[in-house]
Amino acid sequence: MSAPRVLVTGGAGFLGSHLCERFLAEGYEVLCVDNLITGALENVEHLFSDARFHFEERDVTEYLHVPGDLDALLHFASPASPIDYLELPIQTLKVGSLGTHKVLGLARAKGARFLLASTSECYGDPLVHPQSESYWGNVNPVGPRGVYDEAKRFAEAMTMAYHRFHGVRTRIVRIFNTYGPRMRLRDGRALPAFMAQALAGEPLTVFGDGSQTRSFCYVEDLVEGIFRLLASEEALPVNIGNPQEMTILEFARAVIACTDSSSEIVFTDLPVDDPKVRQPDITKARALLDWEPEVDLETGLARTMAYFSARLAADSGGEHGA
Ligand code: UDP
Prior knowledge:
By secondary structure, the protein is of the alpha/beta class. It contains 9 helices and 13 strands. It has a 7-stranded parallel β-sheet, sandwiched between helices. A two-stranded parallel sheet has the order 7-10. The chain has a two-stranded parallel ribbon with strand order 8-13.
């Protein structure tokens, strides 16, 4: 019997590359598609030696043809950091809307399972805490983050329509803040920013007074949750994230402690529409997938630091992957 085949859009990105790796380890043939506007070939270059790994540079908002069978299709292509979608607002909207439509059409044609990478951004600046899947959110459609939030909300609606109308076996994961190796150093998100600053002995830039909260999940835990969700029969969204909530100031201090840095913390302006709180309610994932995160913050930060130190040394101050 031939190996099952999976297509991962955004496969050269932070999460996509970890998924490609996981599916290869599970015996799949992996088709990785990425237009490399925010992804980087460095993230998957170690997979090229595996004959079951195939890469194609392609924009999934265009017509998508893939020869042969497909068992599963994971749609992870999208700019995903606030800086990226401020710079790429139209591409962000297109990949969430047109891209999701194309990829769902492909899943339908192949009879493949489909999994959408959705986001806690669907909850916007939440008025319910922690956020469970039944909360509809508080999103500003016309603010700077709207291009991402609304694209993902549209993508969820489109995915459910393909499920209900065409009977496609779809899954939706709502991903909360995730961190780990292969995040881009200069993507503007809290973890890479703090890590790069701490390692360089520069001040850590905490936005606002740092009292806003986030809940950070290590990438390996996220990938495990996604793998289990794909195998499940649940079409409605499932939160995957680590419920350990902390303020951004506490998070900055944890990065300083992990890197043993003498950096100070400076406070700068809070970006527009920055959510004040965020914590996943993972009751559903626990019950349905028997899943919960296992990697604690200290362990996850240490592994991430090893990656960033090596990257910084290799780049010796140059730009990586931007
Ligand atoms: N943040 C910060 N300093 C930075 C980058 C981000 O204080 O250099 C804050 C940001 O305002 C937000 C939190 O850290 O409150 C998480 O930001 P990130 O961009 O990582 O993710 P998101 O806002 O999408 O949760």
